[in-house]
Input
Amino acid sequence: MATTTYELRKKPKLLFTLSDSDFHLIDEDNSANNGEFKYNSIISVDLVKGRTNWIVSIFSLVIDFILDLGSFSNYKEKDKLIFQLTSSKIEILLFKVNKKELETLVNSLKKKSA
Output
């Protein structure tokens, strides 16, 4: 039984261990995501790129202008990895992750769940 390990982040740890029939997830940022999942329970795997939230950014700019704080910043949502499973949905925030390792993981999961 061959296993492949993908350590996407060290602190807090984000680790995927893929075996022949299932994968094990350790997400120290959100322990509710931890568990062992069968490939045949995966409906979809999506990598959602973070985008600018213009409503919050404009609101922040207006407040900054009114209060003269000088601290305006563009509000950007974080990238997410979303698993739609037959019984649940898992959303993993992707900050400080190894992008190459992430792309390889997503491709592997899509192949194994097809």
Observations:
- The helical segments are 54-67, 99-113.
